[in-house]
Amino acid sequence: MSTLTELLELSLDEKTIIAEYIWIGGSGTDLRSKARTLNGPVTDVKKLPKWNYDGSSTNQAAGADSEVILYPQAIYKDPFRRGHNILVICDAYTPQGDAIPSNKRAAAAEIFAKKEVAEEQTWFGLEQEYTLLQKDIKWPVGWPKGGYPGPQGPYYCGTGADKAWGRDIVNAHYKACLYAGIQISGINAEVMPGQWEFQVGPAVGISAADQLWAARYILERITEIAGVVLSLEPKPVDGDWNGAGCHANYSSKSMRAEGGYGLIKEAIEKLGLRHKEHMAHYGTGNEKRMTGQHETADMNIFSWGVGNRGVSIRVGGDTEKEGKGYLEDRRPSSNMDPYVVCGMLAYTTLVWKPGLWNGHIHFHKGEWKVGSNGTMQ
Question: Which residue intervals define the domain GS catalytic in the entry (predicted)?
Answer without folding.
Answer: 104-377
